[in-house]
Each structure stands twice: as structure tokens, then as C-alpha cells.
Amino acid sequence: MARFALLAATLFVAAASGCDPGSNGGGGDRDGGGGGTIDLTVGGGEWDLSDIDFATSATLDVQPAASQSITVAPGATSPTVSFTATLNGQPVSVAWSVDRGDIGSVAVGPASSTVFTPRGTTGGLVTVLAGFNGQTVRREITVQVRGTSNGADAGNPKQAGQIATTVGQLTAGGGVGGVGGEGLGPAITDMAVVNALAAPTAGGGNLALIYPYNGTVWPRGLNAPLVQWRWDTGDADGIKIELSTDSGNFQWTGTFARPAILAQTNGKFIRHPIPQDIWDLATNSAGGKLPNGTSDKLTMKLTVAKGGTASGPVTQTWTIAPARLSGTIYYNSYGTGLAQNYTGAVGGNGQFGGAVLRIRVGDSGPQLAAGSSGASTNCRVCHSVAADGSRLVVPNQNGSAFSYAIAPTGLTPTTMSTYAEFPGLTPDGAKALTRGGQLLQMPGGAAITSTGLVATNIGTPSFSPDGTLVAFNPMNTLANATQKLVVMSFNGTTNTFSAPQTVVDLTGQTAENRPGWPAFLPDGKSLVFHQQSAAGSDGNGLGDLRTRKGAKAQIGWAAVGGATTQVTKLDKLNGVGYLPTMPGAASMSCTGDRTQVGNIDPTHANDVDYNYEPTVNPVASGGYVWVVFTSRRMYGTVASIPPYCSDPRGVELITGKNITPKKLWVAAIDVSGSPAADASHPAFYLPGQELIAGNSRGFWVLDPCRNDGASCESGDQCCNGYCQPNNTGALVCQNTPPNAMCSMPQERCTNAGDCCDQTNLCVNGFCTANTIP
To answer: Could you tell me if 386 and 464 are in contact, meaning their C-beta atoms sit under 8 angstroms apart?
Structure first.
């Protein structure tokens, strides 16, 4: 009988040598389903191995059996952990794998032993799996990453881009590291500062963090944030930043002296970024679920010193969404330096531009998407982008419009036969609905006959992610039309609109209280919108709900398709209760379209009312929906001039002397939330946008999809919806989920049962984790 067990083991190993069970994280044991028998001739006789009970013939064991714990430095690949597999006490060759390839790796075998090697890029709990003849043994390793730094590391590629060497870098593109400021500082060599940071006076000097915000939800994969503070001393010689997760799987302390560039600018040391490699490591390590069911949060502590006196630490705690956002953000830029098509700017050569710019996630500056230098007819703003990232539509200033096909190689324009400003595009970019109620066939914009719309002036229409609904302002035909948002069903086969439902109705409030700029959440069951409370000096006409000259708005959230209308202000997103002000700020000479606006709220006391034009990432990820919106709030100490100073003809912006606060921000909403209550979280500044310009109306959309075999990070980048390891372990686009036969987060699904993790949700065709509290 022992001989037959040995033969069976040999056959199993031969079959397993071409696979790596569990390597794609799908989890679980799966039957190959051959359904037949194997005939084997031994010693002249014929044996049917299907009659042998392997499960009872031997027991698989892996040592060490106890849970292991190792501590590694950032980027280190040691110490390692060795494992040995035995069958009834004898070494046996098995197939090895891990469930968290981001934490570490093993030699897959088949072999009787393997070594787990940490990557040094992520801390957390990893499971090593050994598979043999239908048996699977699991062993756990906790990898704890611990590190310290004193000053920037110019030899580290991720930190090199955060070190400013010229003054011009400070305002070029998105600024240093895509977030502004003066970049990383060198090592602290003054022992008085070192000793002060080690023994600060708790709370001394009224030290306060003004950016980021406590409670912010961050995705993975973004540029590291710029930490900004206010201290009575007004300057510093050195700082200490500490980062740690609740689980203790990641801890890091960094100390930094004044950035060298401050010697050239004569500026104050009042802000400093987190090193990019450390930020990546921290966010990759945080965000998992703890044994008590809560999220493994990330805490930051800041201590600031000048000479022998230090204050702090001040503390913030952030939630990290366990997902890496991908895609591109397309936005309007009024005042860009990438396309100069207007004159009259204050400072520099007097030229500035209007254009659509784009930022790919992780970029430190934008690229020109539509528009060019030259006459004002080269201006391209007032755009819309299809959710799948395939098409951009934008007009110019002389009554023409253009349809751009978006491909990995660039954008190709087609002149449209019909004018379209802020049209609603179907998710696939095949059709556009204009503000005048015309349905157009793209790319050329030929008119399509449609029926059923309840209005012919519909403001800024927006389709749901599945293309079956459209939301708009019925600017005419309905009673109190300007104070309503309506949702209608849309049949793309017959081009018919039907079943109007009023989802927002501000009738009874003052005429300036109006809703607009609707955008659906990925599940199509609710939408966010711009709720104006003051029209500003442009007046309260039937045109756009404005963002300038004193116009005020907050972002609201409304239910779609329910028995009753539910509308909630997103207080956390809007900044209620936590936004800082600019104490002592005075009015400045600043105009917008020749209207004096520098005297409007120079202290930013009403920043909660400067939030406009929301759009929504079409893919829910990490347990959250991601909202992009325009805001005139103060961005720490980087952009703190009066809120409405954003016209290059009325204030010096293009030289970088002033930085306008008209910028794009991003906030998370719980994917499991509903408009019955505020489920939003404090927002973060969108990295990579051009510092010198006023930026607005950002669309965060998918990139053009990638074909099978192309490299990927998540399934939403792939045309067929799956991103899985190939036979070399590299992640590539595929048309099916191999081995696992189920979908990982951000991979294709038709219902939640398609997701490997049965606690996941299927939202807009992609699996996503539920929100971890």
C-alpha cells in the first residue's frame, strides 16, 4: 500500500508542477473535474488508482506550525522564514503559494521546502499555503515593517522627485511632488533641534495641522500629501513625522531640517511632504480588516522644533481604502501655462490659456488634452468625458464643438456638426445629449430623433453609469423648473426618454437656492449635485450655476427611484466643522471679469460654501465611491489668497506669485451608504493639477481599456475585465479569471456571487469590498 501512495504522490506532483494554487489570491481548493480513472500497470498487474483512498493514507504537515512574526526595514528582503512539508513524517514535494503577494513571496515548487521572502514594501498578515493531493495546509506570518529616516534620500528614485533644486520647480506643473510646497528637507545635524524633537512641550505654541484633515479616507497609489501646519512661532528648524497603523504592522519615524530651497526663497518652514516611498509603504500596509472588524487605520503625528524648543505631537488618524485607484482626470483649466490663447494676464508675458488638461493617477503634473496656443478660438473648455474614457466632447469660443477619440496613443479630434457645451455622454461615448435636449450620434454629432424629454432646456445633463437613466435641470416647461432635478429612464435602442421623476425639489426656498450639475453614483441609485445658495454678482439667470464672483454652493446627495425623495447635504465632504481659516487676512486687489472679488471672504471663513460641480468615478473601489469636485477652499498655506481670485487678468497668477485656491478635491462616500444620512468623509487635494491655474469640472474616468496580455494593476483597466497573473507571475489582462473562477476586487461581475469574497458587492459591473468601519 505504501508503494501505491508513493506512486500517487509522484503523479500529483507532476500534475501540480505547472500551476501555483492560490497564487492569484482567489483562495479555496478546487477540483479539476477530470471525471475519469488512471490505469497503472505495476508488477504485471493492472491497478485502478480511483479505487485508492489517498485522503486516509497520509497526513500532510508543514513546519513551523506556529504563527510566525518577523520585523523588516523598509525595502528590506530579510529576515526570511523557512517551511518544510512532510507526509506522515517524510519529506514530500508540494506546491507552495501565498495569499498576499504584495507582502512577500515563496518559491512555488514543487519542493519539500520553501522560503518566504518579504518584499519590504507592505506590512501585514500573509498566509503561506502548501498543496498536495487535495490537502491544503496554511501557515501564517505577520510581517512588521519598522523604519527611521533622518533627512531625504536623494538616491531613492521616489524621493528624488520631492527634492526641490530650483525656485522654478515650486510652481511648475503640479509643484514639487505634485502637491506644492518646498519638498523634502535634509538631515537634522543641530543637536539642540534633535533633543527638542525628542522631548517636546506637549501642546506648546498652539501647533495645529491645517492640511490634511483628520478622518480623511485615502486610496492607495496617490502622490504623498503635503503636511501643513500653523504654529505661533511662525517658522521651524526641524520637524518629526511619525506614521503607524493600528495593527502595529507598520511604524516609521522621520526627521527633517529646513528644505534647502528656503534659503533662496526666504520662506518659512511651514509645510513638508511625507516621503513618497514611505507613503506607499504606509498606505499599502494599512486598510485591512482587524480582528474586531474595524479598518486598520493610519495615524500621523507631527512635532515641530525651533532651536531648543519643540511643540507637539499633534495627531491625525486616517482611513486607507484597500484599493488602488486608476484612470485619468480630465478638467477645465482657466489660466493654464500649457496653452496660451488669451492676452491681458497680469505679469509675465501677459498671456494665458483656456484648455482641457488631464492627470494620470500618480503624475506630478498635467498634460494638455484639448486646446492649443494661438487665438482665442484655440481655447477648449466646457467639456464632458465618457465614463469609459473613450471620448471627450468640448466646444471652442466661436460656436464650434469637437469630439475627441481617446486612445493610448493620444486624442484625435473630429469637428462636430452640432454645438455641444457640457453635454451628457453615454458611458460608452456613443451618444451625447445637449443642453438644448438634442440627442447626437458621436463622433460627428449628427442629430438623432428622440422622444419623451420633458424639457428642451435641460441644464447640464448626466447619464447613469449603465446608461439607462439621465439626470438634468428642466429649465423650462415645469413649474419652478429651475429649482428641480429630474431623472428619466433612457432606452438606447429606441432613443426614448420616459418615466420622469423629480429627485430634488427646492420649491419654497429663495430663488437662488437651485440644484444643478448632477452626477450618478456607480450603482445608479443616487446622485450628487451642486446646491447653490447664493448666485453671486453674475445673477440668477437660466445659464450655468456659477462658481465665481461670490457664488456659493454645497454638494448634496439625493436618492433615485425611491418612494420618497431623500436629500442630504454631504457635510463631511463640504468641510462642516473642521476647515481652517486664514486669520488676519486682508482684502487684496483682485478682479474677476472686471468685478472686484478680492474683498469677498479673505479669511476663508465660509469655505464650506465654496464646493461646486461634482462628478463621480464610475468604479467603486476599496469600499468607497469617489467624488471629484471644484472648491475654492483654502489649500493649507499653498493656496490661501481670497477664494474668488482666480482670473489671471485680475491677479498675478501665471508667474506663481499667487496661487489661486480654485482647485479640484476628492472625497469618499461609503459604498454601503444611502442619502438617508451623510456617508461622506473629509476630502483631499487632488495631486498633479496645475498650481498656477484655476481648475474645475474634473471627470475621473477609466483609461482606454487594455487588451488581453497587456500589463495591468486591476481588472477595471482591462477590456475583458480581469487582471490575473500569467505563468511567470506578472499581472496581465485576461478574458477569464484563471484558477480562481471568481472575480477579485475591481474585476468584472454580474452579481455579488461572482466575487471571490462573498462579502464583496457588485457595483456597476465590478466587485468591490464593502466599507470597513
So the answer is: no
In 3D, which of 601, 598, 550 has the Cα closest to residue 579?
601
Q: 276 and 202, same structural domain? A: yes
651 and 741 in one domain?
no
3-state secondary structure 577-625: CCCCCCCCCCCCCCEECCEECCCCCCCCCCHHHEEEEEEECCCCECCEE
pLDDT at residue number 45: 39
pLDDT of residue 488: 97
The answer to whether residues 690 and 755 belong to one domain is no
* Any domain includes 708: no
Cell of 345: 494676464
Which pLDDT belongs to residue 478?
86
Q: What angle do CA 758, 127, 625 make, to 5 degrees?
A: 40
Q: Coil, strand, or helix at residue 277?
A: helix
| Residues of the chain below pLDDT 50 | 1-56
* Residue 746 resides in a domain: yes
Domain C-terminal end among 324, 342, 374: 324
Backbone dihedral angles phi then psi of residue 562, each to the nearest 5 degrees: -85, 170
Assess contact for 379 and 341: CB atoms under 8 A.
yes
pLDDT at position 53 is: 43
> In this structure, are residues 441 and 461 in contact, taking their beta carbons and an 8 Å threshold?
no
Structural domain of 758: 715-768
Which tens digits make up the pLDDT trace of 689-717?
999 999 999 999 988 889 999 999 889 99
How far is it, in rounded angstroms, from Cα 298 to Cα 285?
A: 9
Q: List the beta bridge partners of residue 282.
A: none
Q: Do 378 and 230 have their domain in common?
A: no
Q: Give the CATH number, domain containing residue 218.
A: 2.60.40.10
Q: Which long-range contacts (CB under 8 A, 24 or more apart) does 575-579 make?
A: 575/213, 575/607, 575/608, 575/611, 575/633, 575/682, 575/683, 576/608, 578/213, 578/214, 578/215, 578/682, 579/213, 579/604, 579/607, 579/608, 579/633, 579/634
Closest CA relative to residue 74, chosen from 125, 126, 118, 107: 118
Our count of domains for the chain comes to 4
Task: List the grid coordinates of 442.
Answer: 458621436
* pTM of the predicted model as reported, rounded to 2 decimal places: 0.91
Is there a single domain that holds both residue 25 and residue 116? Answer: yes
Q: What element of type H or E holds 572?
A: helix 571-574
pLDDT score, position 598 = 96
